[in-house]
Amino acid sequence: MRSDIKIAIIGGSGIYDPKIFKKEREVKVKTPFGYPSSPIEIGDFFGKKIAFLARHGKKHQFPPHQVPQRANISALKELGVERIIGICAVGSLKENFKPGEIVISDQFIDFTKKREYTFYDKEAVHISLADPFCPELRNLFHKETKKLKIPVHQKGTYFCIEGPRFSTRAESKMFRKFADIIGMTLIPEAILARELEICYLSLAMITDYDVYQKRPVEAEEVIRTMKENLEKINKLLKVAIPKIKEKRTCFCIEALKAAKI
Prior knowledge:
- The structure is a single chain.
- The protein is α/β, with parallel strands linked by helices.
- The chain has one domain (7-254): Nucleoside phosphorylase domain (Rossmann fold).
- It is 23% helix and 24% strand.
- The protein is built from five helices and eleven strands; from the N terminus they run ββββαβββαββαβαβα.
- Strands 1, 2, 3, 4, 5, 6, 7, 8, 9, 10 and 11 form an eleven-stranded mixed beta sheet that branches.
- α2 packs across α5.
- It is globular and about 50 Å long.
- The model has no long low-confidence stretch (mean pLDDT 91).
């Protein structure tokens, strides 16, 4: 099922803008891990063929801990995807990481508990995740974000929790000692992409301050701020995706070279 689709976006339905994404077809891919969370939509994005996958399903039916991550990444790999742009909503753990800003994460801490973390259950494969995100994509998107004058953090550590509940105040106070933002969807998405030698970029939209603040976060607040952030993200995608070079020269393409014992 290999195709000429080299770039994929994984995100919520709000990212999908029919005004700029010209849908050409929809693909249902069955993988050894089942079906992905939604059919993969393929179309033209300012001259680039891209794939779009709704992480939580088209009806948002998959909570964070139930997203079929292995099927999602496996399906994109089968299509020939080489780069994934993962877009997500996060809470802030630091006062200087403000709602409405974008974080181009450079590190993560995994605090999830019961997910399917690897494609390699029957052999010993130990990939390196010292630097878990593609440096080429990170540099390009940071440069274009600055040009657009969108508030952005070039670096940030993403603390990934199991969910679907939000943190307690005690947990939040602990988390903020180690990370800048907090969310529920990055893991194992980024890990699985590296295992298949796919470049992965995390674009995190800050929607709220986590519950270390006096007023606890509420889902309604998250949704409202996320909608406001989507316009910024779409502007960024519009200018950055056409500038992604065809040839990859990053370390992502050799992730398995020294991983097998």
